[in-house]
Amino acid sequence: MSRALNSSQVVNIEDLRRIAQARIPKAVFDYLDGGAEAELTLAENCKAFREVTFRPRGAVAVHECNLKTKILGYEISFPAMLAPVGYSRLMHPEGEVAAARAAGEAGTGYILSSISGHRMEDVRAASRGPVFYQLYLMGGRAAAEAALERARTAGFSGLVITVDTPVAGLRERDPRNGMKQLLGSSPFAKIPYLPDFFAHPGWLISFLLDGGMPKLENIVIPGQGPMKLVDVAAALAESTVTWEDLGWIRELWKGPIIVKGLLTGDDARRSIDEGAAAVVVSNHGGRQLDSVSPTLRALPEVVAAVNGQIEVLMDGGVRRGSDIVKALCLGAHAVLIGRAYAYGLAAAGHAGTARALDILRSDVDRTLRLLGCASVLELSRSYVDVPATWARM
User: Fold this and answer.
1) How confident is the model at residue 231 (pLDDT cuts 50, 70, 90)?
2) Rounded to the nearest 5 degrees, what angle is found at the Cα of 352, between the Cα atoms of 342 and 102?
């Protein structure tokens, strides 16, 4: 599998997506691939990148490109980090550990989701790069406080607070595929969906050898132990993060805090007021509220509102290195990639994640050379044209 991933047959992220779709059951693939409701925002996230065009500099010889940048003081090899992706252990048994290891080997950062099947201590130990912890308040404040203490002790580099999940979005593919039944404990409820599992014997064998359905090792409910995967949707509805919560979180966590899930300048300014060191312009990959702005279009408003006071990142729709470059031209310090690496993880674990990062890094390097720009730090709005129809520019 590793040899195939480095062949001429795997040259872009879509190739990894195709391999992942063949390897894992439809329920798991659609969880990774799908979005909320009509999936309008899911599509618009990618479309927005296609609407932005480049303005290259001609007759410029770029012999070597500097792709390095710093995020919250940590130098990364190119301006992309791995976003938090829940249920990663369902995609591949190595899950979050494999992704963190690949990120560290590539010289970049990784963000661990609360909805993870591997212990945060093992994930932190797997990477030689910066690793951040993404906190949900599922399980209540006591569970969150315990997680923060574990993250501090394990040496996590920062905390990511996601603020766009007061409830889980309606991802219509999931109920059609019986995702809840498959995650549940009733063997009878699983019966209608088992043929799809048996049609993917490689995944099924590795899933069973891994012990079956993992619990959420980093959401430990006092007196009950790790939360079960099936409890996530209900737990999200009972654990909305508010601006007031950032107060007590700030008291417990002395490292940098990143607020993720913003689409407006007003929320960006509020994040600064609450002590955030960075914000992530994000619509949760089109998985929460459908029909919101694609993140690339929302990015300039947030960049203008922040006005250089804190760092701005973005995610959503990034499938190529040229997408990363466009985001930087519009003011992002770096991007977070989610599906782009998760397809690789689902396709081949660590090797697939590493291949995704290699593809994107090579894309960024080539794009800069073709633009006639020697460094990601020199990118600016002058390198792109943006449609006149885009508002708030």
Assistant:
1) low
2) 85
pLDDT grade, residue 189 (50/70/90)?
confident
Beta-strand runs (E) in 21-122? 53-54, 69-71, 74-76, 80-82, 110-112
| Residue reference for tokens 């599906």 | 339
* Sign of the Cα pseudo-torsion (259, 265, 269, 274, in order): negative
Contact 319, 13 (CB under 8 A): yes
Q: Is 118 a catalytic residue?
A: no
Q: What are phi and psi of 279, to 5 degrees?
A: -130, 155
Rounded CA gap, 50 and 12, in Å? 16
List beta partners, residue 76: 69
What tokens appear for 285 in the block? 């990959």
pTM for the whole structure? 0.95
Annotated catalytic residue within 92, 118, 200, 284: 284
Chain-centroid distance, C-alpha 96: 12
CATH class of 2-385: alpha beta
